[in-house]
Amino acid sequence: MRPVDGAGRHARRRARGRRYRSDGPRSTPACCGPPRSSGSGRISEIRGWRYLDGHALLGAGLTHARMGRPDFAALIPALAAAARAAGPPQIRNAGTLGGNIVSNAPTGDALPVLAALEATLVIAGPEGARREIPVSHLLAGVEMLRPGELVGFVRVPLLHAPQAFLKATGRTGPGRATASVAIVLDPARRGVRCAVGAVAPMPLRPLEAERWVASLIDWDGDRGHLDPQVSTAFGEYVAAACIPDPPPPEDGSDPVPLPPAAIHLRRTVAALARRALGRALA
Ligand SMILES: Cc1cc2nc3c(=O)[nH]c(=O)nc-3n(C[C@H](O)[C@H](O)[C@H](O)COP(=O)(O)OP(=O)(O)OC[C@H]3O[C@@H](n4cnc5c(N)ncnc54)[C@H](O)[C@@H]3O)c2cc1C
Fold first, then answer.
1. What spans are recorded as compositionally biased (Basic residues) (predicted)?
2. Phi then psi dihedrals of residue 237, to 5 deg
3. Cα angle vertex 169, ends 172, 157, to 5°?
């Protein structure tokens, strides 16, 4: 009989580990399974998505690159468009949905889309605790992550209707948004949902403009036949709601005009909103 040397023992252990891994975590004995297999299982769980009660449960570990692919775009087109616009390829390969939400930068491209979709966050806490909050609550600071909590999933309603995301940057090529607009149609509720990103610390919802334009869409006929003047007016309505005029001075003197940079930003938002609505209704 040949003596078993150290290297041989290690080789056999490695082979056993490989066999357990290929069988999947369930066949791994709880006492001696390679720790990496359960860890990678957990990670892969939040790097994908699944369906639940008419919603998509998106893992917080989904990268922008993954969300930009065609199969994801078929599911949530506006989020896919935002993911494709989120910085250069290195950032899209590494940056995640959860990181984009929790870092809560005004220029986060996923944020206006999630606000328009009225997504909720599934938050995992210590000792298996779990709670859900609207994404807008976290972005507005109404509710915060508590110590030890992680965003596990993002619950997004599947609306099965056109959506659009458009972004303006201050430079050619990938860059942070100076303004962005997400438009989501909700035919079941005859609603248009719009959120504007980057112009304020959190995405803004111009609710009156949403209701106004939704009332003018022929939901039972050809949605695409919206008068171009209505689209233009919608863009201006959205822009004025998000970048309002300064309040009139209390002493009754002449109103202060908007600064040129704000006028320019308003025009940008108006153009984005008009075009995004046109794309969603096309
Ligand atoms: C050069 C550059 C350009 C960029 N351009 C854009 C752009 O154009 N558009 C855009 O949208 N974004 C842009 N980003 C941001 C990028 O897309 C990522 O969203 C951001 O860098 C966060 O990266 P991350 O997912 O690796 O998170 P991390 O850097 O790993 O984490 C960020 C923070 O979030 C916390 N966190 C992460 N995940 C979770 C979770 N699941 N639960 C709780 N907390 C969590 C971390 O603890 C950390 O505090 C850019 C970033 C860089 C560096």
1. 9-19
2. -65, -45
3. 125
* Candidates 3.40.50.150, 3.10.180.10, 2.40.160.10, 3.30.465.10; CATH matching 45-281: 3.30.465.10
Ligand 1 binding pocket mutation candidate from 43, 46, 84, 103 (most atoms within 8 A of CB): 103
Ligand 1 proximal residues by C-beta, below 6 Å? 60, 64, 86-87, 91, 94-96, 98-100, 102-103, 107-109, 145, 150-151, 176
Q: Using the 8-state DSSP alphabet, how is residue 96 labeled?
A: B
CA 268/CA 264 separation, integer angstroms: 6
Q: What is the pLDDT of residues 238-276, one digit of tens each?
A: 999 999 999 888 888 888 899 999 999 999 999 999 999
Per-domain residue ranges for the chain?
A: 45-281
Phi and psi, residue 20, nearest 5°: -60, -45
**pTM score:** 0.86
What is the residue with the minimal CA distance to atom 37 of ligand 1?
99
The pLDDT tens digits for 160-210 are 999 999 999 988 878 999 999 999 999 999 999 999 999 999 999 999 999
